[in-house]
Amino acid sequence: MRTLIAASFLAMLTACGPKAGGTYEVAAATGDASAADSIKAEADALWAERGDKAKLQAALTKYEQAYAANPTNQELTVKLTRGYYFLGDAHESDQDAKMAQWDTAIGWGKKCMALNKDFTALLDKGDEDEATAVRATTKGDVPCMYWMATALGKWAKANGIAKSLKHLPTVKAFIGRVSELDPSYFHAASDRYWGAYYSVIPSFAGQDLDKSKAHFDKSIAAAPEYFGTKVLMAENLAVKQQDQAMFDKLLDEVIAGDAAAVPAITPENTVEQAKAKALKAKKSEFFR
User: Fold this and answer.
1) What tens digit of pLDDT does each residue of 200-224 get?
2) What are residue 234's phi and psi, to 5 degrees?
3) Minimal CA–CA distance to 113: which of 178, 184, 34?
4) CA-CA distances (angstroms) from residue 35 to 43, 67, 70, 134?
């Protein structure tokens, strides 16, 4: 029966629907190369205040200008991929607006990945896709892979179960490669992803709440300073297990935490505190 259910869902993947944008190519330089560094410096100053939507949007505009002048600068494509992901996750409330920002992030992620010529060479052969070509990536590609996969996962989930399953091989391959190359990246991000993955994936596709907890616990132990791991664990694992004590403990710890303790992630932790408060306010909706 499980096989039949899985087959019926896989059949849905050929249905028409929105497609993630962007192509794996590096743009030709069109801006003033001599101005790229100064534009980037202005963008970096605005990026530090990305908790403010207008400042983040201004930073992204300047990063795009710098990219036009220097499209082989990987740092610019990483900031644009991460920045548009954060814009959708932190600053948009309308679902369509969120998806639009995540779609833009995916496009920049592809430009970021395209800087690895070995990766694009495998794709250009025509008999490989992202999930297999990912073997050509290196540790330097980890930021590109992580932020693109994160944006793609959120975008696909927002488009429904069929779209999620269609893009799941790519997301899993990218995060799996992050796990291999740099599991500590962005505050133990890969274990955080697997914690969420094993709790939200349908049962026929491999849901495993024990694995979910193990990955969440590992991420928290490695990077307790990042609030998002506890928020994800409460929202997904605790709710799935109907564990109210876990739900309350995790969210209360985030709400009581000092979002400014680690300046590099103060904007992210501030957003996660707001998410924790919103989840607490809706607790009765999650538990029977």
Assistant:
1) 988 888 999 999 999 999 999 999 9
2) -65, -45
3) 178
4) 12, 11, 10, 34
Single out the residue of 21, 19, 228, 31 nearest to residue 109, CA to CA. 21
- Distances 60 to 42, 92, 270 between C-alpha atoms, Å: 11, 15, 20
Which residues lie closer than 8 Å to 269 by C-beta, 6 or more apart? 225, 226, 227, 228, 257, 259, 260, 261, 262
Position 18 confidence tier, pLDDT thresholds 50, 70, 90 = low
Rounded to an integer, what distance in angstroms lies between the CA atom of residue 151 and that of residue 98?
10
Predicted model pTM? 0.91
Q: Look at residue 12 in the predicted model and tell me its pLDDT.
A: 37
Question: What 8-state DSSP symbol labels residue 26?
Answer: P
Kindly list the distances between the CA atom of residue 128 and the CA atoms of 52, 109, 139, 166, 170, in Å, as whole numbers in the listed order: 41, 18, 21, 16, 12
| DSSP code at position 72 | T
Q: What are phi and psi of 76, to 5 degrees?
A: -65, -45
